[in-house]
Amino acid sequence: MKPCAGELPSSGLKGGEERPMITTDLAEDPQVIAGYIGISEDEVTDTLDPAKLENRFKLWTPQDLIDSNTPPVWTAKGLIIQPTYGMLAGAEKSLKSYIAQFIAVGAAAGVPILGQFQVPTPIPTLMMVGEGGRLPYTRRLERIARAYGVNLADLPLFSTFDVASTVSDQFRHSLVRNMKELWPGLVIIEPFYAFHGSASEGKMLHVEGEQLVWLGHTVNEYGADLIIGNHYNQTGTGSGLRRITGAGPAEWSDSWWIVEKDESRSDVSTGHFELSFDVGSRQWGGTSWDLVIDLGAFDDDTMDNEGDISWSISRTTGTVAARRNDQHSEIIRRVLAEPFKYTKSGLLDLIPGNAMNARKTLAKAVADGLVIVTPTPGPERGRMVIRDRYGPSQMLLSARRLTSTD
Question: Beta strand pairing status for 225-231 and 80-82?
Answer without folding.
Answer: unpaired
